[in-house]
Amino acid sequence: MKKGTLLYLGLSMVLFLFSGNVNAQTDKKAAEIKRLETALATAKKNVAKNERSLAVADSLFAKGTEQVNDSKAETKAIETERKTLDKQYATQKKALEKLAKSKDKAEVTKATSDIKALDLKYKADTKALDTRLKDVTKKSTTGSSNMSKGKSGKSTATNSLETARASLDAAQEKYDLATGVVKPEEEGNKKKK
């Protein structure tokens, strides 16, 4: 009976150790799969982050282009207004200077005061146009800056996105290999061989 008990205990110990090894291997496999899932999730987050960066760079470039185009149109409008203002000023001043050379003193006094008022109005109008032009120039500079930031951001984001996608593909491949999942394309290739 002692031999039977010892044999039973010995076999039980071997089976117990063997099942412990199997469980340890299963635990290692599960931990490896969990680690690969985490790496896959991180790679997906990086791809999403880089796609957002690319979208921001594209919108920044588009906004800069819009600002530059708007400022060009406004600059042309201001230049047109300036030419019109200069022509009106010149014709009005010419007429008033002609009156200022008159022999009638009342007419000369009135023409002189009208010339001073015209000069003040012209200076105020040109100052307003200069202020608008300064604002438009600032807008154009901002637009150019946004365009260059968008270009460099797009370049950086594109490179980062390519790297992140490669990392995602590698992580997905490792995960698929560990879980035993085969892509449909690979199944088709195996059948053809």
Counting DSSP H or I runs of 4 or more residues, the number of helices is 3
Tell me the fraction of residues in β-strands, as a range. Answer: under 5%
> Quick one: biggest sheet?
none
Calculate Rg over CA atoms.
Answer: 41 Å
Determine the mean pLDDT.
Answer: 85
- The percent range for helix content is over 70%
Based on DSSP secondary structure assignment, what is the total number of beta strands? 0
Shape: rod-shaped
- Uncertain stretches of 5 or more adjacent residues: none
Main structural class: mainly alpha
Please, could you describe this protein's structure?
It is a single chain. By secondary structure, the chain is an all-alpha fold. The protein is built from three helices and no strands. The protein has helices at residues 2-100, 105-179, 184-192. The protein starts with a helix and ends with a helix. The mean pLDDT is 85.
List keywords for this structure.
193 residues; mainly alpha
Task: Write the topology of this structure.
Layout lengths: L1 H99 L4 H75 L4 H9 L1
Helix pairs in contact: 1-2
